[in-house]
DNA sequence: AAAACGGGGTC
DNA sequence: GACCCAGTTTT
């Protein structure tokens, strides 16, 4: 059984109680939106597609205009794509409009102009993914189909105390499983909308207004005192800054290019295979020269704050990194003269080509391979220089 | 798994 | 002005 941070087992809200509380709240508090109060599957499909990645207030006028211009799936299917795109203009994500148009034609061709009621059939329509299929099935047809969007994921993660990353595989699957398990027999569509409405108006991402929340009494996150701590969103795909790395590989099997870091830098005075920040203009000086010397033009993505040992390509702490660099330094010999570089504000003040020790061999070739491949360059390690092929 | 997709919002 | 938002398709 899963335990929370306090080592206790979170109580699972009884579905019946949750269903009653949410539906009751929804009936009383739901916003009056143009696509509410219709059961027309086409209207609901249209509104759901428009609402993908788009705020309610932005969608509102577009929805009303579309319903006037294209009142039926046939009208939409027969309209020229150019006109549909024109009417979509300003909503963004124009692929949605293309898929909507193609989907309408598909519905006319494959389903006689009627949207199917089953999730599986809906999923076959272009532009209808897991969320939209659940939305149309449940809202238009009251099929007991679950649905998960960003709001639902947040609300359910909080109520049920889901600690797993709701974007990742396990957490995502768990949210969908919960969403299905709590669906009422009746009014599945309203229940799904209640979850989304709660997320949109009460259970907001950063500062949920738990006061008026109809289900705070059965909410694990509320009980924890820090409801905003959930859901856990995995470290959002961190943008990976690009670094250019000049490497030893193309100097051949037995030689290594090293550069001495300037004294006032981190690891100052130590030698390392030069790694250069390509996003930094300063590297135009030393950097370009080092790259030319190494004969390598490749880029490798490096995560900010992460230290990758340039000799072994192992991830490590700063302390270990420093120790290993010192050790490499000692191995190479402090009396290596080193060709001095012109004064610049780059990171290095000297370069040297030295014999590659056996201790370096494996790590370096691994690193070289990786970096060169990242740069779109195929390598044949162990061969003489110049044999790297595209 | 991750990027691309387009606007608009917030901090 | 960078950062965040959130489904579907594509790679």
Automatic annotation (TrEMBL):
<keyword id="KW-0408">Iron</keyword>
<dbReference type="InterPro" id="IPR044298">
    <property type="entry name" value="MIG/MutY"/>
</dbReference>
<comment type="function">
    <text>Adenine glycosylase active on G-A mispairs. MutY also corrects error-prone DNA synthesis past GO lesions which are due to the oxidatively damaged form of guanine: 7,8-dihydro-8-oxoguanine (8-oxo-dGTP).</text>
</comment>
<dbReference type="InterPro" id="IPR015797">
    <property type="entry name" value="NUDIX_hydrolase-like_dom_sf"/>
</dbReference>
<dbReference type="InterPro" id="IPR005760">
    <property type="entry name" value="A/G_AdeGlyc_MutY"/>
</dbReference>
<keyword id="KW-0411">Iron-sulfur</keyword>
<dbReference type="Pfam" id="PF00730">
    <property type="entry name" value="HhH-GPD"/>
</dbReference>
<comment type="similarity">
    <text>Belongs to the Nth/MutY family.</text>
</comment>
<dbReference type="InterPro" id="IPR011257">
    <property type="entry name" value="DNA_glycosylase"/>
</dbReference>
<keyword id="KW-0326">Glycosidase</keyword>
<keyword id="KW-0234">DNA repair</keyword>
<keyword id="KW-0004">4Fe-4S</keyword>
<dbReference type="InterPro" id="IPR029119">
    <property type="entry name" value="MutY_C"/>
</dbReference>
<dbReference type="Pfam" id="PF14815">
    <property type="entry name" value="NUDIX_4"/>
</dbReference>
<protein>
    <recommendedName>
        <fullName>Adenine DNA glycosylase</fullName>
        <ecNumber>3.2.2.31</ecNumber>
    </recommendedName>
</protein>
<dbReference type="InterPro" id="IPR003265">
    <property type="entry name" value="HhH-GPD_domain"/>
</dbReference>
<feature type="domain" description="HhH-GPD">
    <location>
        <begin position="50"/>
        <end position="201"/>
    </location>
</feature>
<dbReference type="InterPro" id="IPR004035">
    <property type="entry name" value="Endouclease-III_FeS-bd_BS"/>
</dbReference>
<keyword id="KW-0227">DNA damage</keyword>
<dbReference type="InterPro" id="IPR023170">
    <property type="entry name" value="HhH_base_excis_C"/>
</dbReference>
<keyword id="KW-0479">Metal-binding</keyword>
<keyword id="KW-0378">Hydrolase</keyword>
């Amino acid at each position: 059984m899963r335990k929370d941070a306090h080592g206790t087992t979170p109580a699972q809200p009884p579905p019946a109680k949750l269903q009653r509380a949410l539906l009751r709240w929804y009936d009383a508090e739901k916003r009056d939106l143009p696509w509410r109060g219709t059961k027309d599957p086409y209207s609901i499909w249209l509104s759901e597609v428009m609402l993908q990645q788009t705020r309610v207030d932005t969608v509102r006028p577009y929805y009303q205009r579309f319903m006037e211009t294209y009142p039926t799936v046939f009208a939409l299917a027969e309209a020229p794509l150019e006109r549909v795109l024109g009417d979509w203009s300003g909503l963004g994500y124009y692929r949605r409009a293309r898929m909507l148009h193609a989907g309408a034609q598909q519905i006319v061709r494959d389903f006689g102009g009627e949207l199917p009621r089953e999730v599986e059939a809906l999923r076959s329509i272009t532009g209808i993914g897991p969320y939209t299929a659940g939305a149309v099935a449940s809202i238009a047809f009251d099929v007991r189909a679950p649905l998960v969007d960003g709001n639902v994921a947040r609300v359910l993660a909080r109520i049920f105390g889901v600690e797993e990353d709701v974007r990742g595989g396990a957490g995502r699957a768990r949210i969908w499983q919960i969403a299905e398990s709590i669906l009422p027999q009746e009014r599945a569509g309203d229940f799904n909308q209640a979850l989304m409405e709660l997320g949109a108006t009460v259970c907001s991402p950063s500062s949920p207004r738990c006061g008026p929340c109809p289900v705070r009494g059965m909410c694990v996150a509320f009980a924890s005192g820090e409801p905003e701590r959930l859901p856990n969103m995995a470290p959002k795909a961190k943008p990976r800054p690009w670094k250019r790395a000049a490497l030893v590989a193309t100097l051949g099997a037995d030689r290594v290019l090293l550069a001495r870091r300037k004294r006032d830098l981190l690891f100052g005075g130590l030698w390392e295979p030069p790694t250069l920040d390509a996003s930094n203009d300063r590297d135009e000086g030393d950097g370009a020269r080092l790259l030319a010397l190494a004969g390598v033009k490749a880029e490798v993505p490096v995560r900010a704050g992460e230290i990758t040992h340039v000799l072994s390509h192992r991830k490590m702490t700063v302390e270990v990194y420093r120790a290993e660099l010192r050790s490499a330094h000692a191995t190479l010999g402090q009396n290596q003269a080193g060709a001095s570089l012109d004064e610049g504000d780059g990171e290095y003040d000297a370069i040297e080509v030295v014999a590659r020790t056996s201790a370096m061999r494996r790590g370096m070739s691994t690193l070289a391979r990786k970096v060169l491949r990242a740069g779109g360059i195929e390598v044949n390690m162990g061969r003489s220089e110049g044999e790297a092929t595209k």
